[in-house]
Amino acid sequence: MMNNRDCNSFHFYIKRPGWPMTYLVAYCPGVKLNCPRCDSEKITIFFKPGFIGKKQNIWCEIMDENNFELCDNYDLIMKCNYHPNWICKNCYNGGVILKND
Predict the structure, then answer these.
(1) Is 95 exposed, middle or buried (0-12, 13-18, 19+ CB in 10 A)?
(2) pLDDT per position as a tens digit, 25-77
(3) Residues 70-98 pLDDT 10s
(4) 3-state SS, residue 92
(5) Of the four, 66, 79, 86, 98, which is 20 to 30 A from 18 by CA?
(6) Would you list the domain boundaries of the chain?
(7) Contact criterion met (CB below 8 Å) for 26 and 45
């Protein structure tokens, strides 16, 4: 039997033609996200190379439970260096994912 995470989320690795596979991992939690700046739904969540490992699974669970928000506040971004990142493909705004308390 498949759980909710198996049905609604997926991982993919970013690869460009002729370039080697990168360590950047993108993630889709299966929930609707809107950019804080332009309200676009064209959001990509990704993990930097440092996330390859056990902390990535913890953040995937948080995102699967829809217990997070997109943050584009520069001061918070600098304090949350080890959080997943996001970028809006419409206005190129970006930031980090914050867990809701």
Answers:
(1) buried
(2) 788 888 889 999 999 999 999 887 766 566 788 888 999 999 999 999 999 99
(3) 999 999 999 887 899 999 999 999 999 99
(4) coil
(5) 86
(6) 4-99
(7) yes
State the residue for tokens 């993108």: 26
pTM score, whole prediction: 0.74
Token output for 59: 């953040």
Residue 84 is given by DSSP the state -
Instruction: Give the residue with greater pLDDT, 9 vs 101.
Output: 101
CA-to-CA distance for 94 and 88, rounded, in angstroms? 6
Contacts of 80 (CB under 8 A, 6+ apart): 71, 96, 98
101 is written with which tokens?
A: 């308390």
DSSP string covering 18-67: TSPPPS-EEEE-SS----TTT--S-EEEEE-GGGTTHHHHHHHHHHHTT-
Tokens read off for 71:
């943050």
